[in-house]
Design goal:
A hairpin with a 4-residue loop joins β1 and β2. By secondary structure, this protein is of the alpha/beta class. The strands form 3 sheets. A 5-stranded parallel β-sheet has the order 4-3-5-8-9, with helices on both faces. A two-stranded antiparallel ribbon has the order 1-2. Helices cover about 50% and strands about 10% of the residues. The chain folds into 2 domains: about 80 residues, no CATH class; about 250 residues, SGNH hydrolase (Rossmann fold, 3-Layer(aba) Sandwich). α2 packs antiparallel against α3 and α8 crosses α11. The relative contact order is 0.11. It has 15 helices and 9 strands.
Amino acid sequence: MRTAVIFIALTIIGLLDYYALSVHNCWYLTACGILAFPFFISFFLVSALKSVGVITGKIPDAIGAAFFSVLIALIVFEGILRLLKMNPTYLETIGQSAYLSLYDPGMKNAFWHVYEPNDTTHVSRGDFFYSRRFNSMGLAEREVNLKDTGTKKILCLGDSFTEGVGTVADSTWPRELERALNTCSRDSYLVYNAGVSGCDPVYNYHLLRGKLWDVNWKAVIFCVNGTDLPEVLIRGGMERFKPGNKVAYANPRVWEPLYGSLYIVRYLVLDILKYDWTLHPVSESKQLNITSAQKIRDVLINAQSELNQRGVEMLVVIHPLSYDATKGVYNGYMDTLKSKLVIVKPLDMLPYFLDSAGLTKNNYTDYYWPNDGHFKTLGYRVMGHKVYTELAGRMKIECNKNH
């Protein structure tokens, strides 16, 4: 009987391993090892205590069977949660199996949050694939002379939606904006894309003041979305920057490695204990996000004040993520951020996508990639042209050509 139970259990584990490996989710094997570790330690300690006489007599078979059954149940439950894709991270959703902590700066140039200068990356997200080259500043932009006085220059700051993840370099919204300006105006415009995946307004401001401040910009555009609140919650405001070109985020939970490795722990943390993706209790999230919104507001107000003193137009653009677009409204935390940013008169893209561009929950995949969630080329085109009309109105750019 015991042999049959062991055989059946090993068969189930083997099948789960085979399925996991077939979809390149080898981390399931690691998870099984982590789950088995405390049981092996318990067995070793019991054996050691028996050998020195601390424990005497025969340990009932029922105890061993219970331990073994619990282990098998946990391993099977872990496998089921993985098969159902319960609580995957963004990277796991797009096909990358490794867990990456939100509390880890990650990038080699984390102090500036830019890529390796003059490097090339190959972006593969399941939905799409392309290659992208970074310039000498570590940005996904052409190598251009920013000291050239023959063109009017506009700077675009933001995250992956400004960088243009999901489309080729020539179809990002900053490039669409540049084409619209040069098509309409008799002046020559250069729109510089300083968007970096995973960036936030604090990093954007830091990059502007530290590396792009001496350029004669005609306008600076900050792009904001719903990912910025949790990022600033974890990274902090300007206090994240430390002497010696170092950066420090908030301390992660001591149990985060288990959260990253085991779907069982994620299920316990997110579904049972009701924590959010920043690993804070939902009951604390409202106040934490209000604090994050205030830090974003402070940075943007500082930027506006400093740019206005130089006669530079500043535009803040708030755009929807794919789940905002499908619901037709922002979540409560994003509404909090919007209310904080009223003072800088932002351009809210959500009404434009819904009313003028015709986006609905039935056709949103025309604008966004269904799994990755970034804009497709059409989404970037819509955004670029709306930013153009807003910026042209604020800067009083008259259209002297057929546009």
